[in-house]
Structure formats: C-alpha cells, structure tokens
Amino acid sequence: HESLARTLWSHSGDVRIHLIGHSIGGLAVCYFVQELGSDARIVQTLSIGSPFGGAKPARLFPAPVGRDVAPGSRLLARLAEGARQRLVVPHVSIAGLEDRIVPNGAYLAAGERVSVPGCGHNALLYHPRVVAEVVLRIQHVQAAATVRDARVAG
C-alpha cells in the first residue's frame, strides 16, 4: 500500500484517478481508499475477481496474505463493514461466474455488481465484456466530471 500511495502522490494534482485491482489487488485498492485516507483525486474503484468473501486456497499461502484472504478474516470483515457504512467513492465489483479461485464472494458488500458468465479468474483480465465494462465506467465518471466542471466554470 505504501508504493501505491507513492505512485499516486507523484502525479500532479489535476487528475482523476480510477483504481482498478484484480484478485488481491482489488482488496488492496479498497483498503487504501477505505482505511488509509485515500486521495481526493480518486473518483472510483473497480475490483475484478477479488475475494471479498475469502478464498479457501488462501489458507495454504505461507505469507500473512493467506490469513487475510481466508474466509472470515478480520481484514475481509473490516472491508465489508466499512463498505456497508459508507463507500468513500463509487465501487464496481466484477466477478466471473466460472471463477474457481474465487468461486463466490467476489463482490464488495456495497456498490455495483457485474457478473460475467463463462469466465474464470484470470480470464477476467482479457474478457471483452470486462474490458468494455471498465472502459464504460471510466468514461461515465469522466463525462459526469466534465459536466460538473463546466457548471462550476460557467
């Protein structure tokens, strides 16, 4: 999370940032926004195949991440509770219905949900529907911001 913060803070102030994470990366972007104070320039988060409900194989990981991604972990409970209380920015969870790594629970407790039939965990990264959905979400937020900016300037 420290390298994410450094990367964000290295960019000039006049940008809109969309954080997108796959698998554990989706947990990381939500944790950054929800628990670490975020950055005012972040306008939305998107998670792709992220184990918000846990992933049973994670128990086998030798690192602490295995504990954090195991079903029922304190981290996952904290993310769910924080999302239910208040989403800091809009969030979209994208899940593959054939995901064997994260077979269920790939949705944050709040925000929008998109399901992709016939798609597995890593295939989500390349699936045309996922790519189109991510592009559409970014364009939608950018268009709304452009209208808002024009109203403020006018």
- Residue runs with pLDDT of under 50 for 5 or more positions: none
Which percent bin holds the helix content?
40-55%
State the major sheet.
4 strands, parallel
Question: Strand percentage, roughly?
Answer: 15-25%
> Looking at the structure, what is the overall shape?
globular
User: What average pLDDT do the residues reach?
Assistant: 85
What gyration radius follows from the Cα positions, in whole Å? 16 Å
Distance between the termini: 38 Å
Q: Please give the oligomerization state of what you see.
A: single chain
Number of helices: 5
What is the count of β-strands? Answer: 4
The secondary structure category is alpha/beta
Strand order of the main beta sheet, please? 1-2-3-4
Order of helices and strands: HEHEHHEEH
Give structural notes:
- This protein is α/β, with parallel strands linked by helices and 154 residues long.
- 42% of the residues lie in helices and 16% in strands.
- It is built from 5 helices and 4 strands.
- It has helices spanning 2-9, 24-35, 64-69, 74-85, 128-153, and strands at residues 17-22, 42-48, 91-96, 112-116.
- Strands 1-2-3-4 form a 4-stranded parallel β-sheet, sandwiched between helices.
- Helix 2 packs across helix 4 (74-85).
- The radius of gyration is 16 Å and the shape is globular.
- 28% of the residues are buried.
